[in-house]
Amino acid sequence: MINRRNLMLSTVAIATLGGIGSAQAQAWTTQPVMLINPFGAGSAVDVVARLIADDMTARLGTPFRVENRTGASGVIGTESVVQAPADGQTFLVGSSGSMGINPSLLPDLPYDAREDFIPLTHVVSFPQAVCVRPDMNITTLEELIAMAKEKPGELRFGSSGEGSTAHLAMELIMADSGLDMIHVPYRGGSAAIQALIAGEIDVATEGLPSLPGQIEARTVIPIAVTSPDRSPNYPDLRAVSETIPGFDAAAWIIFFARAGTDDAIVQTMSQELVTSVNQPEVAARLAEIGAVIFGRSQEETAAFHRSELEKWARAVELAQR
Amino acid sequence: METLANLAAGFGVAFSLQNLIYCFAGVTLGTLIGVLPGIGSLAAVSMLLPVTYYLEPTTALVMLAGVFYGAEYGGSIASILLNLPGTASAAVTCLDGHPMAKKGRAGVALFVTTIASFVGAAVGIIILSFFSPVLASVANNFTSAEYFAVILLGLVGAATITNSAPMRGLIMVAFGLLLGAIGTDVNSGQQRFTHGVPSLFDGFNIVVVAMGLFGVSEIIQSIRVTRQRTSEQPITLRSMIPTRQDMREFTAPALRGSAIGSFIGALPGAGQTIAAFMSYAMEKRISKRPEKFGTGAIEGITAPESANNAASITAFIPTLTLGIPGSATMALILGALLINGITPGPNLIPQNPELFWGLVASFWIGNVLLCILNIPLINIWVRIIQVPYGYLYPAIIVLVCIGVFSVNLNILDVVFVMAFGVVGYLLKVYGFEPAPVLLGFVLGPMLEENLRRALLVNRGNFMALMERPISGTFLVITAILLVWALASPILRARRSRAS
Predict the structure, then answer these.
(1) Residue A120: Cβ-neighbour burial (10 angstroms; 0-12, 13-18, 19+)
(2) What is the pLDDT of residue A11?
């Protein structure tokens, strides 16, 4: 017994000396830490959450589990985090849809995205790709803009739904370049891509991770990514910001804690998330699925989240005009 | 010939010990979740998804697929013996399966549904092997106009699904349409009848509606009625032997059901429940004795069971050939590939032939295993539901609650399923049948969504729907069906007056 206690004490001491952060020793009990993902298993967001959960479990010894509480565009899962105690055992896997757009889009949310949550770390972003039909014979955003200006109100763009990141990204592009296209919402991104292939629509925006198969087969032609920089996986594919300076409408993943969570836990969790996404193995898998790693600090993330809320509020206003 | 060579290579993959074990595990688990009301393949596949991290992609796919099509076999067992559908698509099987059991022909019904399931799956696999590119290009050309036309045909064709007075059936379809209207409107993003309750934003889940109206309501009804057990005896192999008459009535509906199921299954977004409803409606419509339906007609269980199994196989066509998942479960299965570093898309099969053909071969193996599980070993499953009602029904209620909870991990869904149980019970008490409610609920929102989208895309031009060859053809068939449905009673009345 004595030996084991000594061993534990010395491990903690070494951890402290090594600068890994002694807070983690007290931060979590042996109870599993829940990472609530308000969207379904198997999606790109889910793959990111599970990669991080596995890595943190392996590194920290505390089990981290991903739980998919789905429904109502993420409102139900997000609400469940507010209802959990602020003891640092439950965190939210927030995305641009649930924590960027919903606060402006949906009236009467059962929580306040600013007041009830503390942003921890902006872990990754997913570039969205603006795609067109191969038979339109265009390969750049400039050509699409020219075509849409020639035929105002005629081109049709599809999205994964009214108020989705894909829809609002296109609304921002249209507003910034003075275009007029018809929005055709679908039930989910793959339905929109199918409609693009079937020729029902002319343009569709969809997350890059689900597109490589279609891009490779040239059933859809990507003309630009909505992230501020080009995607490392497609270095030849230009960013919208090269045509519209400053444009950024990537889909992000930010982890959140409930407001009222102890600051030590907030800081520890934020740092551990940064460490996780930068682990070589995790980083390689993230790159493989098309995620761009950010791993921002808590302060940077909080500032980024505030600016995102403002940006999407403007986009929602544009869409509802 | 090339297909046969590929298939042979596929059997080489599928017969590896590991793949065989996981195939067996998949179909056994599939049958079990099919037997148990409430727990569906969506929940089972999402629970198994983390396991696939540690498996070869082919093995993972073989297992998850086994769960998916295995559930369609198991779904009919509880439908027949207890009048409780194990899966949403098996709700149709209750209509004639349970009356057969009441007449002491449970064994025959179980045998016939298993063989029908196998026929449906076999037709589906053959179509998947030989005609994937053709069907994929058809599915690829389906726009909202085509979806609207096909769904309209289904709704008009299936409006006669009940035995009660037509007006009562129509009232129930309308009730289903209203239920389907609840939730966020896809076309405008507006919320309807949600009263700000987030759990209603996506509308009611089909599992909640089907399990409530068919499952929970049946259990509530049984509280009042001390009824005869339909499943007291173990099912003997002898009791399963169908009569020659049964077999005559089996073949054509099984093939028609397989054809309808294969087609509907290949359309992204349609699914097994619609396939089962449509084939049942078609059999009833072309039958010389439609009054027999609902009282234990062989055709009434054969057609929907072959259809939902065929659909569960051809659902893999858009998923694997186009990279377009047709349902939530299919999206999960694609997710399993994504986790394993395989990107779904049109080049999936050329780049991973061993994966695709290994899966096709595993379909054959899995379906043979399912026949063994469901004919000689039927009593394993039957025994599960032969526990005395006093224990069984509370246990089923618990399972239903767990099942609907597992879909979204949302406790309100449990409340909803109980509420639908009460509604279903009241409907039965007042002589309304729940089947048309489910039909309206499933088809109504798809009909509206696709019509409005087709009009949006075509700038409000109705004629554009007629001008497209596929949608035009379906709309003409629908019109003929409508005229026939309206005219035939008049003609019949006139003829009887003349004689």
Answers:
(1) buried
(2) 41
Q: Which residue of A has its CA nearest to B344?
A: A213
In chain A, the residue whose alpha carbon lies closest to the alpha carbon of B454 is A200
Would you write out chain A's pLDDT as a tens digit for each of its 321 residues?
344 444 444 444 334 333 444 444 455 667 899 999 998 776 788 889 999 999 999 998 889 999 888 888 889 999 999 999 988 899 999 999 999 999 999 878 889 999 999 999 999 999 999 999 999 999 999 999 999 999 999 999 999 989 999 999 999 999 999 999 999 999 888 889 989 998 999 999 998 888 888 898 899 999 999 999 998 889 999 999 999 999 999 999 999 999 999 999 999 999 999 999 999 999 998 888 888 999 999 999 999 999 999 999 999 999 887
Q: How far apart are CA A47 and CA A143, in angstroms?
A: 35
B188, B331, B344 member nearest A162 (Cβ): B188
**pLDDT, tens digit, 9 for 90 and up, residues B246-286:** 888 899 999 999 999 999 888 877 788 889 988 998 888 88
- Helical (H) or strand (E) element with A132: strand A128-132
CB–CB of B345 and A214 under 8 A?
A: yes
Q: Determine the topology of domain A31-125+250-320 in CATH.
A: D-Maltodextrin-Binding Protein; domain 2 (3.40.190)
Identity of the residue in B336, B345, B453 whose CB atom sits nearest the CB atom of A217: B345
- A194, A214, A281, A318, best to mutate vs chain B, most B CBs in 10 Å: A194
Distance from CA of A149 to the nearest CA of B (A): 19
Question: Closest Cα partner for B321 from B288, B355, B287?
Answer: B355
The verdict on a CB contact (< 8 Å) between A42 and B339 is yes
Chain-centroid distance, C-alpha B440: 15
Under 8 Å between Cβ of B282 and B293:
no
CA distances from B359 to A266, B61, B365 (A): 46, 7, 10
Identify all chain A residues contacting B318, using CB atoms and an 8 Å cutoff: 194
Taking CA–CA distances from B203, the nearest residue in chain A reads: A72
Please tell me the distance in Å from A302's CA to the nearest CA on chain B.
Answer: 26
> Does this chain's domain A31-125+250-320 share its CATH topology with A128-242?
yes
Determine whether the interchain pair A191/B268 forms a contact, defined as Cβ–Cβ distance below 8 Å.
yes
Architecture of domain A128-242: 3-Layer(aba) Sandwich (3.40)
Where are the domains positioned within chain A? Answer: 31-125+250-320, 128-242
Its pTM stands at: 0.82
- Prediction ipTM score: 0.80
